[in-house]
Design goal:
- The protein has two helices and seven strands, in the order ααβββββββ.
- A hairpin with a 4-residue loop joins strand 3 and strand 4.
- By secondary structure, the protein is of the alpha+beta class.
- The protein has two domains: 35 residues; 86 residues, no CATH class.
Length: 139
Amino acid sequence: MALQPIKNKVLVFVIVLVTIAIIITGYHFWSISRRLHPSIEKYHKISLDVSEIKKKADSGMLFSIVLGEKTVQVTVKPKPVFHKGAEVIEQTEQKTIRRKIENVTTYAGTVVGPSRVNVARLTITKDILIGYIFLDDDW
């Protein structure tokens, strides 16, 4: 019977050690997830009126995007990555769902100006703009 208090103390000690290990591991993974990927040399957070940019992109009009400390004028045209009439097929355990891809969301174009390298590739939906713009002097 004298071993019971010792077993309880050992159990509490083990639980405390495991809790500390979990906290340290969680902090380690959290700190790693906040780092930038090594291939990303620089970035800037910007705010855009995505719906307005989408309207201009669909009509072939120029639009402005702030990149770092400068504003560039971009012109793009729809450049679908899917063939017209392509379908997305989603398979679940219960059924197969087929959806036609109707809205063009991918665009290719250039930045207006003297740069020799001026490539713009964008994916634009009603709420999100993702892509890249390369210039010979920046980005």
